[in-house]
Amino acid sequence: MRKKKAFTLIELMIALALLAIMSAIAVGVYRGYVRKAARSHVETDTRNCITCVASELARVALTGGDPDFTSCKRGSRYTQSCSVNCDSDYENCQCTCTGTGIVSGYTCTTSTNSTDINCS
Q: Which of 71, 70, 73, 82 minimizes the C-alpha distance to 107?
């Protein structure tokens, strides 16, 4: 009679242990990618906010009236809130957006007088 070949219990346990280690590494890397993407969303929302502010100021310069920045304060899924602060003559406005969820506490700021975005 022929002897059947099969895996031993030790071989199966080693294979499961290797699979668990590889899964743990993959999940950690994936979470890093998700966090990086979420931070990118907050940065993009900050840039969109300052672009909206500049557009609103241009509209006011052409048509007159007071600027309305309510539409500039919207964010994406990872942005908790955006705020707009301007000086009295609207020469310099600043947008600040704060993250939520996995990027809670991540804040980005930029202004109409600068092309740089500062995040922390």
A: 82
